[in-house]
Amino acid sequence: MKILGIETSCDETGVAIYDSERGLLADILFSQVKTHAKYGGVVPELASRDHIRKVGSLMEDALEKADLDVKALDGIAYTAGPGLAGALLVGAGFARSLAWALDVPSLAINHMEGHLLASMLDGREGLEMPFLALLVSGGHTLLVHARSLGEYEILGESLDDAVGEAFDKVSKMLGLGYPGGPIVEALAKEGDSSAFTFPRPMINRPGLDFSFSGLKTHVMTTITNLRDIELNRADICRAFSDSVVDVLSVKCRRAIEQTGVRKLVVAGGVSANKAIKRRLESVCQDLASEVFFPSMQFTTDNGAMIAFAGYCRMVAGESDTLEDQVKARWPLSEMSPPMP
Ligand code: KG4
Ligand code: ZN
Predict the structure, then answer these.
(1) 203 and 330 both lie in a single domain
(2) Is the Cβ–Cβ distance between 2 and 315 less than 8 Å?
């Protein structure tokens, strides 16, 4: 079974082909970062236009890389949400037309389910549901109990900003570039951990929800009170990063202790962060639990995770998803198991 995956939910056009026998045959990504960088964030209209320009040629590149004819495809998976409506419509329109022309099923994939399954792409030993998942991206911060494919219980989520969004905003406040995560991470390594101490929001409250907007405001206030930002950029990045690492680790520890589920998957763009990774590895070791991260190229948005999610759903019996429109908002809790 060969599934084409198309990802266009935000600022990356991703096209990939997953084969049930041979694994990932092609995984092509075009990042629009340069287009949006000068605006300090994603401009939705520009994102849609760029997806239109790229998606067709990326599909041809993927087929060439996989040495396949388009007629060899058994299904077309596409990100149907959550994301930017215009950007999603480009991928959905392309995928559904192609599926119709080839007379194969089209599968509407939830982007966050794609992230959730990305760690399984490499066939990790021992990684099967049920597991807990910490999904940390530019738009979401979720702690999920993934019981089986499509059966996701949200244990906690951010009440305001997503953690990736907080990284991006801190970077912007400091006059650094976009996306902020990798830049803040790199600078944090050079910072002095004792220069500033920022709050750890929500860690002393029971429950598994998060909040990052107060921390962001705290960073803003600190910057406003500084005479020379240049001198303290790295220290601020360090204090911010230390706070995020503490918050995420406290909540993950609590989720493992409360549920007794001893497997944690960490995914989404922020899972690329080494400080977060190291701390969660240590928490899980402490709790005799296993932790899984996707390979680096599958942490941020990509077509491979969408092709793989499409494959998982098709192999579980999903035939065609009759979604006639995309869903800019599509909570994981509203997902359902594969439907024939
Ligand atoms: O999953 P993703 O590629 O796109 C969304 O679905 O949102 O995540 C992008 C987010 C951005 O906010 C970016 O700043 C953040 O992931 N990110 C990081 C790192 N790499 C990407 N945050 C912290 N540390 C990183 N190394
Ligand atoms: Zn994403």
Answers:
(1) no
(2) no
Helices then strands, counting H and E runs in the chain, come out as 10, 10
Enter the tokens of residue 118.
């990305």
- Atom 10 (ligand 1) nearest CA: 138
Distance 322 CA to ligand 1 centre (A): 31
Q: Is residue 340 part of a domain?
A: no
Amino acid making up residue 333: S
- The pTM (predicted TM-score) of the whole model is 0.95
- Domain membership of residue 123 (yes or no) is no
Domain hosting 14: range is 2-117+298-334
322 pLDDT higher than 90: no
- 50 lies in the same domain as 195: no
The answer to whether residues 25 and 167 belong to one domain is no
Give the pLDDT score at 123: 73
* Predicted local distance difference test score (pLDDT) of residue 132: 98
- What pLDDT score does 133 carry? 98
Q: How many domains does the chain have?
A: 2
Is residue 122 included in any domain, yes or no?
Answer: no
In a domain, 327, yes or no: yes
From the CA of 299, how far away is ligand 1's center (Å)?
Answer: 8
Judge if 41 and 12 occupy the same domain. yes
Asked if 92 and 170 sit in the same domain, the reply is: no
Amino acid letter for position 113: E
Q: Is the pLDDT of residue 67 over 90?
A: yes
Ligand 1 lining (C-beta closer than 6 Å): 10, 137-139, 164-165, 167-168, 179-182, 185, 268-270, 272-273, 300-301
Task: List the alpha helices (DSSP H) in the chain.
Answer: 33-37, 44-66, 85-102, 111-117, 163-173, 180-190, 213-224, 229-259, 274-286, 304-315
Mean pLDDT across the chain, nearest whole number? 95
**What local confidence, expressed as pLDDT, does residue 323 receive?**
63
Q: What is the pLDDT of residues 192-241, one digit of tens each?
A: 999 999 999 999 999 999 999 999 999 999 999 998 888 899 999 999 99
User: Any idea what DSSP says for residue 326?
Assistant: -
Indicate whether 171 and 293 sit together in one domain.
yes
Alpha carbons within 13 A on the beta-carbon side of 308: 26
Q: Which atom of ligand 1 is least distant from the CA of 137?
A: 8
Ligand 1, atom 14, residue with closest C-alpha:
181
**Ligand with an atom nearest the CA of residue 84:** 1
